[in-house]
Amino acid sequence: MEENMKALESKFVKKILIVKAMKRLSIKDVARLSGVNHVTMSKILSGERTIVHQSTFDKLNDWLSKED
Fold first, then answer.
1. Selecting from 1.10.3210.10, 2.60.120.1520, 1.10.260.40, 3.40.1790.10, what CATH number does the domain 5-67 have?
2. Which domain of life does the UniProt lineage start with (predicted)?
């Protein structure tokens, strides 16, 4: 794996899905709020993409920390 890449743990993705459901957000909403491309977000949530750039992980992690 490249140095600037990060493997997503299933519990991290599950946390995104829980917040998405609780706030009744669409994939595009989550993408817009987190700053992640909506196609990338869709692939992450479907499990198609399990390794992302560190910057993508950081955006999602920052968004999740604000949503808690």
1. 1.10.260.40
2. Bacteria
